Amino acid sequence: MDKEIYDLSERLGMALKSRGMLLATAESCTGGWMSQAVTMVPGSSNWFDCGFVTYTNRSKREVLGVRSTTLEVDGAVSEMVVREMAAGALQRSAAHCSVAVSGIAGPDGGSPSKPVGTVWLAIADRQSNTQAWCLHLQGDRNQVRRQTVLAALRALLDRVMQTQSV
Q: What is the pLDDT of residues 103-132, one digit of tens each?
């Protein structure tokens, strides 16, 4: 078990539960790792609603409702795609907030404009407040994915701590 990920997941769970909130995840490059991280915590069913792993463009469209034009124009690893993934996770769940991630974990798949380690994250809530940002991570595939999970958990915790109870 990764203690840092577990501790962040536990703190996130306490924050969500104390506010009566549910979380949904929409993951691409992390392949379910964020969902696995939060469900390591006993009692996570009190604050984790569901997770969507949408690795292909087709699944992003069909499962989360990401628009084809967004994927064609911006590419899967982009601000607009993670914003639409986060919105789709909220629309398809009972969650109060969602996190979405899409990136290039490597070892290949990068380009000059989007090198390996480029990851986009978005956090959304039902009040239409969505934040998105790009990370430029270093390391091998596993290190990029782990850093992505940590960044997402930290960002979620910060966001939830600023939220009133529902």
A: 999 999 999 999 999 999 999 999 989 999
Tell me the residue range of the domain where 69 lies. Answer: 3-161
- From residue 148, give the alpha-carbon distance in Å to each of 10, 37, 62: 17, 12, 24
Domain count within the chain: 1
The structure tokens listed for 158 are: 């910060």
pLDDT in tens, 127-148: 989 999 999 999 999 999 999 9
List Cα–Cα distances, 104 to 48, 54, 55, 111, 136, in angstroms: 26, 14, 11, 10, 10
Query: Does any domain span residue 29?
Result: yes
- Per cent of the chain over pLDDT 70 is 100
Instruction: Please say whether the beta carbons of 66 and 88 come within 8 A.
Output: yes
CATH value at residue 66: 3.90.950.20
Query: Distances in Å between the alpha carbon of 106 and those of 30, 112, 117?
Result: 12, 14, 7
- Helix ranges (DSSP H) in 112-162: 141-161
Phi, then psi, of 60 in degrees rounded to 5:
-60, -40
Q: HSE, CB side, 13 Å, CA atoms: give it for residue 115.
A: 7
